[in-house]
Automatic annotation (TrEMBL):
PROSITE patterns: ADH_SHORT. This is L-xylulose reductase. InterPro entries: L-xylulose/Carbonyl_redctase, NAD(P)-bd_dom_sf, Sc_DH/Rdtase_CS, SDR_fam. Signal peptide: none annotated. It comes from Exocentrus adspersus. Keywords: NADP, Oxidoreductase. Gene3D superfamilies: NAD(P)-binding Rossmann-like Domain (3.40.50.720). Homotetramer. GO terms for molecular function: carbonyl reductase (NADPH) activity; L-xylulose reductase (NADPH) activity. The keyword rRNA-binding does not apply. The keyword Oxidoreductase applies. It comes from the Eukaryota.
């Protein structure tokens, strides 16, 4: 199951398509019909549900009706860039309603629902949350986004500890800049992307498949001993 919110070449879209190709029964959830139509056109076997996951109670109804969910990828997210000292109260109210509600609260809600079902069925499961390099290192003018993703990492570690004894694994992937449609638009200008590339030992930004492959690994039995881990997909940015 793949909650996802954006249109275009996206990480969530590619994960869904590649898992379906691997034989998984995939359900994609998004509030954007264009994205769901694109996903369906790429693989008609994928079931799609148009829904805004920030609606806590309605999300509970949607997830409950799905039936058993063994693998979960929480991929929905929004960014926000602004110098911290320029924030006003209205900004905070909007951030609370959109950034934290989507990046953190909705992720917690869906994870809660899936884990409850796994426990009821006494079934193993694997969950991967899409976090960010921004949770592991400060990024200029990304203060609120960094905070929302750091919350995802902390939540992931705590849930991994709590439900590891039930063979429910939960990890995050923490990508650097990834060349989605939005990534190319925002970072292709050398004046913008150059300083970031200078800090990446591999001297390139990530491609969508770099993230997809890591997520599929963490969902698989090949990662059976990995839980509570935040995996940087950053070309060495964090370690350099």
């Amino acid at each position: 199951m793949f909650p996802r919110q954006r249109v275009g070449i996206s990480i969530g879209n590619d994960i869904a398509v590649q898992l379906a190709k691997s034989g998984a029964k995939v359900v994609g959830i998004a509030r954007t019909k264009d994205l769901l139509d694109k996903l369906k056109s790429e693989n008609p076997s994928i079931e799609t549900i148009e829904h805004d996951i920030t609606d806590w109670k309605k999300t509970e109804q949607v997830i409950t009706k799905l039936g058993p969910v063994d693998l979960l990828v929480n991929s929905a997210g929004l960014g926000w860039v602004k110098p911290m000292t320029e924030m006003v109260e209205k900004d905070y109210d909007e951030l609370r309603l959109f950034i934290f509600t989507l990046n953190t609260k909705a992720l917690i809600n869906i994870t809660r629902l899936v884990v409850k079902d796994l426990l009821c069925r006494k079934a193993p499961g694997a969950i991967v949350n899409l976090s960010s390099q921004a949770s592991l290192a400060g990024l200029l003018n990304h203060t609120v986004y960094c905070a929302s993703k750091a919350a995802v990492d902390g939540f992931t570690r705590a849930v991994a500890l709590e439900y590891g004894p039930y063979n429910i694994r939960i990890n995050t992937v923490n990508p650097t800049v990834i060349m989605t449609d939005m990534g190319r638009m925002a970072w292709s200008d050398p004046k913008v992307g150059g300083p970031m590339l200078d800090k990446i030992p591999l001297k390139r930004f990530g491609e969508v498949r770099d993230v997809t492959d890591a997520v599929l690994y963490l969902l698989s039995d090949k990662a059976a001993m990995i839980t509570g881990h935040c995996l940087p997909i950053d070309g060495g940015f964090i370690s350099s």
